[in-house]
Each structure stands twice: as structure tokens, then as C-alpha cells.
Design a protein that fits this description.
This protein has about 500 residues and is an alpha+beta fold. It has 2 domains: about 1-240, ATPase, nucleotide binding domain (Nucleotidyltransferase, domain 5, 2-Layer Sandwich), CATH 3.30.420.40; about 245-430 and about 465-495, ATPase, nucleotide binding domain (Nucleotidyltransferase, domain 5, 2-Layer Sandwich). The chain has 19 helices and 24 strands. It has a 6-stranded mixed β-sheet with strand order 3-2-1-5-14-13. Helix 12 (about 300-310) packs antiparallel against helix 15 (about 370-395) and helix 15 (about 370-395) packs across helix 16. The N and C termini lie far apart (about 55 Å). Residues about 455-460 have low confidence and may be disordered.
Amino acid sequence: MSYLGIDIGTGACKAVTFTGDGDEIASAHREYPLLHPDDRQAELDSRKVLDSCFEVIREVNAATGDPVRAMAISSQGEAMTPVGEEGTILGNAMVSTDTRAEHLVAPFSKEFGEEALYRVTGHTPHTLFSLYKLLWVKEHQPDVWKKARYFLCFEDLLQWKLGLRPRISWPLAGRTMLFDVRKHVWSGEILAAIGLEADRLAEPVPSGQVVGVIGPGTGRQLGFRNEVLVVAGGHDQTCAALGAGVVKPRLCMYATGSVECLCPMFEKPVFSDRLRMNNLCCYDFTVRGAYTTVAYSLTGGNILRWARDELGYEERILAERSGGNAYQLLLDKMPGDPTGLLVLPYFSATGTPYFDTRAKGALIGLQLTTRKGEMIKALLEGVALEMKLNLQLMEETGMEVDTLVATGGGTGHHAWNQLKADVLDRKVIVREVREAGCFGAAMLAQGAHLGSAVQQLAREDRRERYFEPDPGKSRIYREKFEHYRQLYPVLKKLQI
């Protein structure tokens, strides 16, 4: 039997089937557009996302010899879709970078109590969380608010599309800022404060719990050849960390996707004023009983997508003609040495530690001799320096990290991995698992957690690539980091 993991991201969804031993069988992905009705809005057409999920499931089923026994879903956080009583999708899903609810954050948080919110949810107020997005819907789309039978994240939305009663994993529920991360229930106090009944949300369950069985009708549409169990998955970062083998302290996933993220694992919940002041959260990991934090840049890998679209015309044309990859062609232009440029990578809201929804990016040090490859590398240096800042703050609270386990699309490029090792001055491991989020979800579907699938990651015959920091380049980046730390406070005063 095989196991299916689905990863629903901001820019694309992926499906991968694995053997019971953790070897990849087949994979498929579909991109979908991120919509920007205005410069403060970022949303997904949930119908398009669901259609894309069905397409990748059909594609991997057609290429998989062993029937799928069970599946689980790794999902982006925060984005919720309103669903009507008759099953109609009533609107698009606002994703993490959508900041239209900014005016609602301070008043609600002050009235409820910012520290009280943190002690219940493990998070600090920000427009990215579902709580404030729902308040915006209630204020600006009252008809949608009244008509919605459910407000569902993408994990539970796909379950609903599959004909199941929607359940949401604890890690994903933790990203809504509506969930009590220690009692593992929707917070009655928070729901009462926004006027939302708990039964209009999916039922929270631990990762790895069976939530239903796909019936024969839907199963035939998707190419399943037998009944398939659906198992609770998790927030995409925690699923990817599990899939990368982050199952003990001092290891930390370094994910490069639409959002660039650090995600460690620790054995009990950690709450402190130091974490709260730096907007470093605490919520469930995908291993039951364990917890995590996430430190992240919301611009993240989107910065390379921006570079491809705005600076990579030549590379896009060449890729179309040759069947190559425009991203790869851009990355191949990077120089070997650190650049003389400095980038503040706030091309969207900042993420941790600042939670600044109005920050703007900057590229400093340009000359007439500056080449495109230098600009590409400087953009990636900027994001890596932002992650170094976050890592430093994590470690100041006692979360020690020896090794970074890299996941995501950027891991296929040697120079990008080496750049991360040099900037963060940590060893970076790239494991053979190509789609860690899908693998983590498939592990949960298998019921493995710390069982056979994790053991596969430690197999001696399984290839791993190691990137040790170059002492000379790390020294340069340490000096550069001291300048980087001053950049945001200075430029914020000049904010346009």
C-alpha cells in the first residue's frame, strides 16, 4: 500500500505518494495565482485551489501502482474560506500577507488584552491571523458573515470537498489565533468576543487522528481504487519539519517557500515575555505532545519570484525555448563571493520579529557596474540575514540550534544552500526528501510519527548533502549583519 501527502501552499499545491518505507513513488503540482485586488489585499480563489488539489490527486493516482491506503493534508496557515449552508463557497481566502484588517488589530487586542490573547493562543496580534480576517469579514461583508455555515482553513476545506465532516489539526488551528493551544479547544472567550459560534469552525483534532473515509463516488473521481482513510495533517511548516526529520531538540527546519521559515521542535509549551515581545509564538507540533515556534519572513521565497517576473525576462524566454527553469538560470548568475549590496527584504508585511504591515523593502549600494547576478544574490542575502536575526532572538530565549535542515524549492541549488550556511553560520543539511511537507503529511497518514518513516531518514544508504559555513564568508556576513540590524530602524523613520 502507498500513502499520499498533499501540501496546499500560497502559490501552488502538491501531491506525492510514498511507499510504506518512505520512498517517493509519484508527484504532481499545480500553480495558481495570488490575487491582489489592491496593494493591501492578497487572496486565493478557493475554488481554483480545490480544483488544483483534485487535479494533482488524480495525476499521482494515475502514476501510482500500489493503491493509496491513507492520505493527510499539509496546509498553509491562517487563510479561511467562507462556505454556505448549501456548500457554496462565498468568497476568496485572505492569505497571510493580506493586511486589510490592520485597523481592527489594535482596538480588539486592547479591549481583549494582548497578554491574555498570548496566554491562550501562544501568538501576538497581527493581521495575518484568521481572528482579524474574520473581524474584517464581519465588518465589511456582513452578508457573507451571516450566510457562512463554516469558515474553513484549507486542510478542513479540502476534507469538506471530499465529502467529510471538516476537522482541523491542532497545529493548523493554532495558527488562527482562535485556539487554546494548551487546552486544545476553540477559545470560548475569543469566539464570544467576535460573535462566532464554535460549530461554524471545524472540529480540532490532534495530528495523525483518522477523520474519515473517502466514499466510492468521490474516490472514483480522484482515481482511488479502494477506500482511503483521511488523517489529520497539520500546518505546512510543522508538517515539513516532521518530514525533514526535525524530531528532537537542537534541530531546526529552514524552509524556503512562499514564506521563509525556521521551525524547531521542543518538548513542552514555552511562554515568556521575551518571546511575546519579539512575536515568537508557541503552538502544537505535528508530534502529539510536542510544541514549536516559527520565525519567518513573509516575503521569503516570493522575493525570487518577484525577481523572475520583474528582472528575469531574458531567463524566462530562454527557459521557454530550452525547457529549462527560469529560477535556475537566475540563480546561476550569482557571484561566488558576498555582494557589496544590502537588502531590506520587506517586499510585503515583515513577519517576525517586527510584525510591521507597513514596512517597505530597500536595495542599497547600487552602482553602474552592478550586475543582475549580484542583485539576485543580494535579495537572497537579505532574506537570509532576516532569518539570522530571528535565529538570534530564538536562541536568546534558550532555544539552541546546532543544525538547520533545509527544505523547499531552493534546496536544489547548491549555491543557495551554501549562502544560507555562510550567512547563518550553521551547518545546513539537505536531506533526500524533496517534498518534506508532503512527506510529513504522508507519515501522519501512515501513523508513523516517530516510527518507520522517520527511521528511513537515518538510513545509511539515504543521501544527504551537508553545507558547512565557509569561515571567511561567514566573517564577512557577521560584519554585514551588524549593518543589517541597523537598517530597519533607520529606514522606518524615512518610510514612504
